Amino acid sequence: MSHTHLEDFYTFEGHFTFDLHDLAAIVLRERQQSVDPFKRARVVEICEGDTTATCLPPHAQTMWTSMKAPHKTAYFLKTEADLDDAANLQGPLEVADFFDPEMKLSPGHAPLTDKEKEMVYWKIRHHDGGILICEALQQVLDALPEDRTRLRIRTSQGLEIPQSPIDAFGIGNVAVIPRESTYICDYQHIKPLSTQVGMNQYLSGHTSEPQPVVYLLFGDSSIPAGGLVALDLASPSLGMRGLGGESFALERVVDYHKRVLPNGGKRVIDYDDSRSEEYDGFFLTDRIRNFSRPELEPIVNDLAERVIRRLSRIARGEETFCAYCGKVDAKDRCSKCKTSMYCGRACQTSAWKYHKKWCVLDAK
Ligand SMILES: [Zn+2]
Ligand SMILES: [Zn+2]
């Protein structure tokens, strides 16, 4: 597989340092904007535990009701054709629009907060996406010119690597037992007024089986775990978020394993890969080697190209971005450091838990 064409989209001649935290936000924003089975669907009902959904006849819920797991949640989505306002939908849905105004929850469940909505949104979008976005970011890092590009890596816990080479990254593999099982059902009624339904069903995080987690590793791999930083872009898929409250995790490997991953990141299966090296409970390779899903390749390529084009515009000073959600054209500047920009109050508030660690330093 050759991706040399990607380099052509990076049309910036000078030197530039990208902040890895910002880069993660931009990758997720572009993922939101790119091709996906849930791009034009909306959550109409969320069921927990033993409850059945009211939006579908019981016989259409056998997969959900027969699932055996101590903690399980089902998300029922209507696809575009079935939505009342389908004709008015423009482009991919933002997090707030992803939930039907009439959405039903299990009896007694409090309405979802904005933070919970954000997590559910990414949990559904990432249901098969961990390796996909990892592969896309790997392509992006490969395409940036290594002699003119550096990464600044800052974790929510205060570790900073100011000048990491762009090509010094690896891929981490671990498999853990998730805390909760997720069932996603994307349905449409075949005929109006009939009980016939067409549906796509997805299961993830089955709590009786180890779930592979793939992430990128930065820093100096000659120093065991302490000098390495993990970037997990799909953490909500297993119900996790970054220690700075982000919908991704960027932490020292030890923090990521002990405080983000379920079960303290205890490894539960061994990868049979003689090319992998083992470090303190995870396996490290230099590339994603088992990306063998040709149907996802156009999605990966599209995502990588979108990100490269944006990085190019950012490096040329033509575009601003929100340091929380990655949106284009952020207008609000942090009044303290005058450096980080946000698309609005909500993102600035959400970003603060992470940003407060670095705001003072940037203000100097
Ligand atoms: Zn934002
Ligand atoms: Zn600031």
From TrEMBL:
Q: Which Gene3D superfamilies match?
A: 6.10.140.2220
Keywords for this protein: Metal-binding, Zinc, Zinc-finger
Chain ranges of the MYND-type domain? 322-359
The name of this protein is: MYND-type domain-containing protein
Q: Which organism is it from?
A: Schizopora paradoxa
Q: Name one GO molecular function term.
A: zinc ion binding
InterPro entries, alphabetically? Znf_MYND
**Residue stretches spanning the membrane:** none
- Give one Pfam hit by family name: zf-MYND
